[in-house]
């Protein structure tokens, strides 16, 4: 028995269901509108009947939805919770973003780690005619972006290795080397990796609610190289903001 009077195996079964539901939502968020039931059960390593029951439960509580073609997306109830959370984060970080934008003269992005990717939730655009702009609501990968690599540097080694397992061995080794540097210097870089002609620097930390949040400054590579010291200095100053929880 456990403290609430339930048998321990019932508690364990409940935790397993929650873990499976979280894993399913991560997969759906990573490929919204592109997965069907057959993809979900394959990615989760579950029997098709188990995956179907899991999906039915998620749909019933509004955390997932299935369109007429059988493609799965996040449900309105979950999106409402995510949007409320994002609104809280953007409000808390807005003044910090403004200071970085004023110090650098470049675009400044705010993103949060969700489903193994970086979800962009706020942005201040550069006044330059030639500038880097990412769509709010867009998702970026973590291994070839400044904000993503900054987040990886916060994770435990086991979690990092799970992410790097999808990469070619040479690329994984390069990212590991970068992570060791980021953990010391606190700033990560993307030099023409995610988008040709665009470079970026980024920082990350933990915020209220256990969220992992990143601030990044992307710019055309030539201008980024010329002003990288100023950008890095502004990001280091942003790390001193009280908005971070650790």
TrEMBL record:
Coiled coil: none annotated. Transmembrane segments: none annotated. It holds the Pfam family HTH_IclR. Gene3D superfamilies: 3.30.450.40, Winged helix-like DNA-binding domain superfamily/Winged helix DNA-binding domain (1.10.10.10). Residues 15-76 form the HTH iclR-type domain. Residues 77-246 form the IclR-ED domain. GO terms for molecular function: DNA binding; DNA-binding transcription factor activity. Keywords: DNA-binding, Transcription, Transcription regulation. GO terms for biological process: negative regulation of DNA-templated transcription. This is IclR family transcriptional regulator. It comes from Mycolicibacterium aromaticivorans JS19b1 = JCM 16368.
């Amino acid at each position: 028995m456990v403290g609430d009077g339930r048998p321990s195996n019932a508690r364990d079964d409940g935790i397993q269901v929650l873990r499976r539901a979280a894993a399913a939502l991560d997969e759906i968020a990573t490929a919204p509108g592109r997965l069907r039931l057959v993809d979900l059960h394959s990615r989760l390593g579950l029997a098709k009947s188990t995956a179907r029951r899991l999906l039915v439960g998620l749909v019933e509580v509004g955390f997932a939805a299935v369109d007429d073609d059988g493609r799965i997306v996040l449900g309105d109830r979950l999106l409402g919770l995510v949007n409320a959370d994002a609104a809280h984060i953007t409000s808390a970080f807005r003044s910090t973003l403004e200071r970085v934008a004023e110090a650098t003269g470049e675009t400044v992005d705010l993103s949060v780690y969700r489903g193994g990717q970086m979800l962009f939730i706020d942005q201040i655009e550069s006044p330059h005619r030639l500038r880097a702009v990412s769509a709010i609501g867009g998702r970026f990968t973590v291994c070839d972006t400044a904000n993503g690599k900054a987040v990886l540097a916060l994770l435990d080694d086991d979690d990092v290795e799970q992410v790097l397992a999808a990469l070619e061995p040479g690329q994984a080794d390069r990212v590991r080397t970068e992570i060791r540097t980021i953990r010391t210097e606190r700033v990560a870089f993307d030099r023409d990796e995610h988008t040709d002609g665009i470079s970026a620097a980024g920082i990350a930390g933990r915020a209220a609610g256990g969220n992992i949040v990143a601030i990044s400054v992307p710019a055309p590579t030539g201008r980024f190289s010329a002003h990288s010291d100023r950008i890095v200095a502004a990001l280091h100053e942003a790390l001193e903001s009280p908005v971070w929880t650790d």
